[in-house]
Amino acid sequence: xxxxxxxxxxxxxxxxxxxxxxxxxxxxxxxxxxxxxxxxxxxxxxxxxxxxxxxxxxxxxxxxxxxxxxxxxxxxxxxxxxxxxxxxxxxxxxxxxxxxxxxxxxxxxxxxxxxxxxxxxxxxxxxxxxxxxxxxxxxxxxxxxxxxxxxxxxxxxxxxxxxxxxxxxxxxxxxxxxxxxxxxxxxxxxxxxxxxx
Length: 197
Description:
This is Riboflavin synthase alpha chain. Residues 1-95, 96-192 form the Lumazine-binding domain. The chain has 197 residues and is mainly beta. Helices cover 13% and strands 42% of the residues. The protein is built from three helices and twelve strands.
């Protein structure tokens, strides 16, 4: 589990097809230091380091991960958000994030609002039940609060520190982002579905 508090950005060093999946090599920029078998959140996707060295690690992406995320499509040199998993007893200043991306969305609009930035994202099919104003959502692994819901879009306000620490600083209209709902919203939606059965 993660807190959605991105440590900073690493860089894609290598990206190759590997059997039925894909393999990534990531320069960690000294932000995370995984050992073999450790997990790392890479732009919101929980990946397991199966090779690692000083300042880098490699991870295999299964077919499902390739299909559900945009990681395999990133070019060499692309920046990715990095976060180490929570340690037992560590405080959660964001919200619990599992690293299991539910949907891929795209940036619909960005706006400098002086005290920070406003980002709008499209709402993918089936994702709307997990969104609520003032509720939490993970965008590329970053814990953010929904500030507005309007039609097929939702908006978040991003403080300058978060924008500079994450790949949001490089995102523009049409760029993809990973979405993961607040696990509480997922649980409530599941219970409601069971109640209707």
